[in-house]
Amino acid sequence: MKTLKLGTRGSALALKQAELTEAALAAAFPELEVERVIIKTTGDRRTDVALNEVAKAEGIWDKGVFIKELEVALEEGEIDLAVHSLKDLPTVLEAPFQLRSVLERAAVADAWIGKIPWNEVKKGSRVGTSSVRRERQVQFLKAGVKVVDLRGNVPTRLKKAATDADYDGIILAEAGLTRLGYPIEGMFELERHPLFVECLPEKNFFPAAGQGAVGLEIRRGDEETGRIVDALNHLDTWNRISAEREFLRLLDAGCSTPIGVWSTLTGEHLEMGARVFPEGPGSPRKAKASGVVPLEVAHQLFENLK
Length: 306
What we know:
Blueprint: E1 4-8, H1 12-28, E2 34-38, H2 42-45, H3 51-58, H4 68-75, E3 81-85, E4 97-102, E5 110-114, E6 126-128, H5 132-141, E7 146-148, H6 154-163, E8 169-173, H7 174-179, E9 186-190, E10 193-200, E11 214-219, H8 223-230, H9 235-250, E12 259-266, E13 269-276, E14 285-291, H10 294-304
Parallel strand pairs: 1-2, 1-3, 6-7, 6-8
Antiparallel strand pairs: 3-11, 4-11, 5-8, 5-10, 9-10, 12-13, 13-14
Helix pairs in contact: 9-10
C-alpha cells in the first residue's frame, strides 16, 4: 500500500491515541509506512464558549465539533484513517464514512480530581466539567452542587483543578488520565498543589457510551485501508461499543445528550445498564438488560426504559 495517512487532533490525549494506533499498525504490518497528519477541529478552536454551545456558535451540526474537520480531510483524500476518542464520534455517521475498528478498550470510569475528596463534595461545592452527562449526574448524586464550565485539554483542566479557585474539583475520564501517565487513585501534586484522585464506579456514576475506546474511521468503500484497519479491531470492545452506540441510536441521542451507559462482557454474556436524563428538570430513567447478542441487548435495554 501507499503510505497510510493517519489523521488526529493535536491535543496530548489525541496524540497518545494516535501513538497507540501507530504501534498497533507497526506490530501488524511492519513494512507499512504511516504518516501522521494533525488537524485542528472546531471543538479545539472554540474554547471561548461552553462545549454544548460550540455548534450553535459555529452554525454546524451539534454532533460534529471534534470530528468535522477530520471527516472533511477523509472525504477529500488528505488522510486515509481518522483516529477518534470514540465517545466524540456521532452515533450515526454520514454516508461517506465508516467506523471500521476499535482498539482494545481502556478503563471506562470517570475520575474525580479535586482539592477535596469526592466524599466531601456537597451542596455549594464547585465541580468543573464541559459534559452535560457529567453535570446532570453530579447534580443527581450530589444535590446542591454548582457545576462550572471547564474547557481545554487534559493538562489544562488539571491545572485549573489545582490552581483555580473557581473549582473544588473536576471530572475527567480515567482512560485519559491513564494514557497520559497521571495517577488514578490517592493523591498527587501539581505545581505544589495537592490533588485527590478517585475513580467513580461506573455502576454508580455512569460513563459515556464508547468511553475509553479509540475508534478508527475510514472512507466507506476504501477496502484497502479497511483490510489494514480490520487487523487492529478488538472484538470484545467492538461488541460492547456496538451495543452502547445502538442504544444511543434508538434514543436518537448523540455526544451531548445526558445519558450514561455501562456494559460488562463475560465470555459471550453481555450486561448493560443505562441512566437517561430528561432534557429539562426531573429524575432519570434507568434500565438494565443482558443477553448474548449485543444489538438485541441494546434493544432490550431501550424497551426496558419504557
